[in-house]
Every structure is written in C-alpha cells, then in structure tokens.
Amino acid sequence: MGEQPGRMPDPGAAADLAEFVGLLGELRAWAGMPSYRVLAKRVGLRMRPPRVVSATTVVDAFRVGRQRLDLDLVLAIVRALGVDESEASRWRASCVRVHVGAKSGSQVGVKGAQPVEGILPAELSADLTDFTGRVTEAEQLAAVLMRTPSGPAAPVVLSAISGAGGMGKTSLAVHVAHRVLEQFPDGQLQADLHGADVQPSAPHDVLARFLRALGVVPGRIPFDPDERAALYRGLLSRRRVLVLLDNVKDAAQVRPLLPGSGRSRVLITSRSTLPGLDGAHRISLGVLGPDDSLELFTRIVGRGVVAAESDAVRAVLEICSGLPLAVRIAASRLTAALDPSARELARRLADERSRLDDLMVEDRAVRATFAVSYVGLPDDQARAFRLLAVSTCPSVTVPAAAAMLALPADVTQRLLDALAGTHLLQSPAPGRYEFHDLLRVFAAERAQADETAAARDAALDRLLRWYLHSSAAASRRLNPSRRHVTLEAPAPDWSPLDFGDYDQALAWCEAERANLGAAAAQAEQTSRHEIGWKLPITMWDLFHRRQWQQDGIRCYESALSSAQALGDPQAEAWVLVSLSSGYQEAVRLADAADCLDRAMEIRRKLGDLHGQGSCLLNLGYVYTEMGQSAEAVGVLKQALDIFRDLGIAAGELAARINLGLALQKLGDYPAAVEHHQQALEIAVKTEDPFHTGRTLTNLAGAVFHLGDLDEAAHHAERAVKITRDTGNPIDEGYALETLGQVHAARGQWAMAHQHWHDAHAVLAPTGHSHATVVLNRLTSQPQ
Q: Which of 98, 382, 634, 657 has the fewest beta carbons under 10 Å from its own?
C-alpha cells in the first residue's frame, strides 16, 4: 500500500449515495491503492465467508449513478484499504443512512443538477483599508477584467499575478476585484487553492464548493470530475461572475476551474509564473518602491511616529527591502507596542541572525511565508537555493553558479530558471540572478540547518576560486605583458571562464565589479587568504582603467590583511604596490609613497629586482604628482635601467611614459618627446592599445608645447580614437583638451570650446581632478 496523503475522508460528510461513492473513491486515493485487481483480491479474502470477487465487482462499487451498494462489499473494501474497526463502523452507518434517505430511481448527473434560482455568490474577501501602491498593476488588471470580449465565444482573459511570498499578490487581487465588482452582477467566487502547501487543493473539490455556491443542490453535484467541470462551465456561460483563484500551484490545478465561454472572468494569484497557462495576461509583482513603502508604513503607524523618528523609520524600511509583508509586520510591531520605538525596532532588525525572528506578529511571519515556498521545492532546487546564499556576492551568473554547485551549466540554468519562476530568485537581466534581501537571510538559515559545514565550505571555496581564475584570465587578456599571479590548476568539478579578446574581458570585469569585490572581502573574512590577496591583484587593470579608486582601495586593504595573515612578504609587497595605485588615483599621495617605501624595503630584502623596478616606477609617478619632478626623474631613470637590463618591455614602456611626464613638468619638452616616442614604439610593437592611446596623449601634449600644432593635432586625434575604443576616459579627456588648445592657438575658439566641453563631459563622471582644470578653460577663455 502506498503512502497515505493527508487526512482520511470523513464518511459522515456524505449527504446522499453519490457523495458516499465519491468519499469511497477518495478513500482509495488516500490509501494509495492504484489497482482495482489488487483491491479485488484483498476484498475477496476479507469477505465472510470468503468468496471470489472480481475487479469488475469492485469497480462497480465506485461507479457513480448506482441506486444501492452491497453493504458487505463496502465493509470489505474499507477494511482492505486499511481502515480500523471503529472507523469501519462509521462507514457502515453512513452507508445505511444514505440508503435510507435515497429516493428510488434517482440519478446523479449533469441533467438533473439544476441550480436554485436567485442565489448570487458573494465570497470576495474584504479590501484593505490601507492598501498602498501598485497603481500601475491595479490599472492594468482592472482594464483587462473590464474589457468587453468580441464575438460570442471569445476566450476568457486570465490575469495571473505571480510573485514571491509576502509580495502582496492576494491583497492586490482582492483590491482590484472590489474595483470592478459592478461589472460582475452575478456574484464572485473565491478559493485558496493552497498551491504552496504539501497537499494543494484538488480542483474537483473546489468545483464542488463553487457549484454549491452557484446554487446546485449538494445531492445533485456530479461525482465525476469532468462532469463537475462541464456543469460549472455551463452555469458560468449564462452569468457574469468574477472568480478569484488564490495561491494556485500550476496550470494543471487551475484549468478545470476556468470558464469556457461567456462574460465571466478569472483572477489568479500564484508564486509561479504559470508558464503552462495559455492566453494569460501576466503581471509579476516586484518590491514596493521607497515612497510606497514609506506611505504604507505611515498609514499604519501614523505620521507623528514617522516624523518623530524619521531616520530610524528609514533604517527599518531599508531592512524590509520593499517586501509589503515585512513592512506591514514592522509597522504592526510598533502599533502593538511590541517594540517601544522605531529606533529599537531598527536596532533589533539590524542583526541578520535574529531578523526573521523579529519580523513576526501573531500568525503573520516572513519566515513562515518563505518556508511555504521552500518546503515544496524538489531536492535539487532546494539545494541550489540554500547553497547560493552561502556567498555574499550580490548576484550570480550561470557559470558562477555552476561552479558553486558543481553541476553542468545546462542543469544549473534550469535550476536557476525554476527558482526564478517561483520567485525565490529574481532575474534582473538575462543570465543573472539575485536574492531579495530577506529571502537571502532565509536561504542562509536553511543552508545552516540543511547543509553540513563541509558542503557549505566546499561550495563557497569553488565559487571563490572560480572568480579568482576567471578574473586572472581577464587580467591576462587586458594586460598580457604585466606580472601575473601564479595559480594552481582548476579543480575538475568547475571550469573558469576564458576570454576571446580585450573587449570581452573588460565587459565581464565591469559586469562582475560588485561580485568581485564581495568575493575578495569574503575570502579574507573566511580566512581563505591566498584567494584574499591574489583576487584583488587580478583586478588591478579594472580599477586602473575605470578609475574606481574606492573599490580598489577597499579590495587592496583587505588583500593586505590576507597577505599579512599568511606571513608572505612577497605577497605583502605586491599588494602594497597595488594599494599605492589606489591611493595615487584618490590623490592620497603621502599614503601612496608610504606603501611604496614599505614594499621597496621588502623587495630589497628578498632580492626581487623586478619588484624593485615596479616600486621605483610607481614612486617616480607619485613624486611627479607631488610636484617633486626632479626627484621623480632620478627615481624613474633607475627603474628604466632595471627593466632594460632585465629585458622586460612592459616595464621599460611604463618607465618611459612616467619619465616623459616628469620631464614635461620640468619644462624639458624635447627630452619628454624623445621618451614618449620610444614608449610609443614599444607599445605598438607589443600590440598594447591601452598604452598606445596613453602615450599618444602624452606625446600630443609635449609636441603642443614645442609649438608644432599640426603634429600635436595629429597625435591627439589618434589618441582620442584609441582611448575611446579601449575605454580609457582619463586619457581621452586629456587628448580632447589638447585638441582644444590647438584650435585656441589657431584662433578657432568655437572648435576649442567644443573640444573642451567634450573633455569635461568625459572627465567629470570619473571624479578626476583635471575636470576642474578643463572647466576653468571653458569659463575663462573667449567664446
């Protein structure tokens, strides 16, 4: 006998023979008895005296339309289905009762099931008095429901509202239903189909309830599900009824409840997008915006409370992250004085470990709402859901998730799409997935409860190593000639990305900027210190090319902690040099110089000549920016000698670029031009477009100061194109400024201003200090 689902049917619920037969069928389903042949065999053994009972005999006992049943056969059947003697007695009494009350010759079916006239169902729940927001969605739904169909057999228009638990689907559906009530004079039907429960409502049970509400006498309701659905469609075809089906599991559950033709309409809510529901008008609910969240909170607690503790209220709403249920619960805690003040509530909710404990009022709880969706997940989806929350990265792509879950990409894609389909994940862009903030907290709780520590650690380790290797591959494509960290081979259960060209690598780095930073921080926080220092090193090109100084500084300060925790002086020196770059770009020049001095000391002790050259290279640039160009020239010449002796072209290129700039600051333009030209030769020879653009920019500025306007314009125009193609806004801005200076020197002020305007437009969004210099040119020079 199979597993018994739910509660045993109650024989006392039978009002007539048809309902008794129906309950007998439900008992067979409850007992998990799939075969009438097996049941007949067991029944034969239980008859007293034992007799041969065929499968046909047993099937006949379950057939709708019988005038009477063999009482001994009924008792044998219920005993064979696992009913004990006390319960069997109830079945016997019920069978006798319905026989006594049955009228001779009555048949149960669609023909005799005429409804009682004048009955108008009015089952719609009350609307919320403080309903807030969802203006656009409400207007869309109302318009769809009030649309007049064309033709006598126009298909029903379905409005499926999907969204995560607590998103306010039911509240919106009920609110819209009240708005359009006048369009449905024949009443409203409403049912909760418990789609997220372990045992959702059976459609034929809902049909029986709806038929009773529509006036069909209980004894005339067909037992056969198809006959029930046919009767239901027939009744609605002559009426205009609004049907609200709440909490639907899937399309199969809802199809029997859809009207066939006519003017009745159905409004559906579900945690699924119901992809199998043809012809549906779908609306997926997202979080409330900040203004609507504040308005909902204010309507519940009152404007005085909000005005008195506005900062604390904002903190509470930020934690609620726009989830309507969370906003309502937080507000209710204040109105019920469960928390003495918004400030105290914000303090309690700030702790992630107990956040979901506090987002609960009586029978409403955010955790319980999420749990309803979680417990119904297949095992593979549940595992993916909870393991994804082990990472602190704000989003995840299919390749990253595949590495984390140790699954093939196509399998991972299906899992993520399934979780997004039930709104346990959000998909802000194709191929990218993220948690709602509170769902992430819940998923992390499930990971702690349902996964071993070893499984959690292994998943996080795979993900962080995947980011390290993928970022290193991007770095090698962005700057193949620079010094790269050494990595172990990838594990067999995950594969890092590779990149076909420079643009592809840079685009990935930009898209993964937030995740890379989070991964680096989590590596340091979880004592994965090798990843913790190496991952930021691979991100140097991203920070340098995009002038994301603060991101770089945070990552490198975290990396420094990891390097020091390892006691690895080579790693510490490498991180210090990278950190100095972040300080340079943030114009924290004294901090940059201090980092380089410390790195230089370490590398001298290690005898790392290449590393010493890198320190001198960067120190020379810092001295130039500090106005100490003479000292910079001396330091940079030392760096140049080291890299030429080692035969490292990339180091020589960088040394000549920085040396040329220092000489320009000293006014020695002929010497500067010489170094820039030699740097250009190296950049072109090594096929380095980024430094080709930078060198052309510097060369244009030096040549301009020597008075050769045509050559300056030529170099600057080339520089603008290349720097724009390589995504280098800083050098593009400088090149545009030089073009403006060339036109100004020729008296072409309109063109000069246009180039300076373009230069400012490029530089200002980066926060670079030279944007102010260009703006001063625009405002001080003649038009």
A: 634
By residue count, the chain amounts to 783
Characterize the bridge pairing of strands 360-361 and 242-248. Answer: unpaired
The answer to whether domain 365-393+400-450 has CATH 1.10.10 is yes
CA 506 to each of CA 478, 497, 538, 544, 725: distance values in angstroms, whole numbers, following the listed order: 7, 13, 12, 12, 12
Query: Phi then psi for 154, rounded to 5 degrees?
Result: -65, 140
Q: How many CA atoms lie within 13 A of 331 on its CB side?
A: 23
Structure-token match 């005085």, residue found = 304
Residue-wise pLDDT tens digits, 266-285: 999 988 888 888 888 888 88
Question: 234 vs 190, 203, 220, 594, CA distance in Å?
Answer: 18, 17, 15, 85
Average pLDDT of the residues in 430-458: 94
Question: pTM for the whole thing?
Answer: 0.71
Q: Distance between CA 316 and CA 406 in Å, rounded?
A: 37
Q: How many Cα atoms sit within 13 Å of 138 on the Cβ side?
A: 16
Domain boundaries, given as residue ranges, for the chain: 11-101, 135-284, 290-362, 365-393+400-450, 452-586
With 60 as the cut, is the pLDDT of residue 505 above it? yes
Residues 714 and 92: their CA atoms lie apart, in Å, by: 103
Compute the C-alpha angle 374/377/381, nearest 5°: 105
CA distance 232 to 219: 15
- Separation between Cα atoms, residue 320 and residue 313, nearest integer Å: 11
pLDDT in tens, 334-386: 888 777 888 988 998 998 888 898 888 887 888 888 888 898 889 999 999 99
Residues with Cβ within 8 Å of 307's Cβ and at least 6 positions away in sequence, in order, are none
